[in-house]
Amino acid sequence: MTEPAPLILTLGLDTASFACLDALRRAHFPTERNHLPAHLTLFHALPGGQLAAIADRLAALAAGTPPPPLRFDALRSLGRGVAFGVESPALAALRSKLAADWQAVLTPQDQRPFRPHVTVQNKVAPDAARTLLATLQQRFAPWTGHGTAMLLWHYRGGPWEAAAQFPFSG
């Protein structure tokens, strides 16, 4: 019997922030590798076999949580790409709660310190990444937005498949 596909948990973004970041991702992410809209990953690989328990926890948490405010505060070099850094004490606290709940099942990647960001370019030559970073820095100004929901996805090796949404309503 095969293990169920892992789950990815992301943060849904407000309409204006998503539109801006997704347009940049579509413009600068290599087309052949860009199978996803812009996203902020909270957890990269949760156990698919625990879908029901994970969904129950997310539903309960989202129901009592207001939409977390976000500040898109910096551009980050990824070496072979560019990301927008996100500052949000409320989001960091939310993720910490979930990480504590799921500590026993977190992968090494998900045990690392949380550095929220939205990647708009990746898997390109370092020169191309440096060029985009310099271009974006010329007109970058921090802005605020908010999270709208936690989005749970199945990862089966290709484009992600939506599993569930948990809107913030606290």
From TrEMBL:
The lineage of its organism: Bacteria, Pseudomonadati, Pseudomonadota, Alphaproteobacteria, Acetobacterales. One of its GO terms (molecular function) is ligase activity. Keywords: Ligase. It holds the Pfam family 2_5_RNA_ligase2. It comes from Teichococcus coralli. Gene3D superfamilies: Cyclic phosphodiesterase. This is 2'-5' RNA ligase family protein.
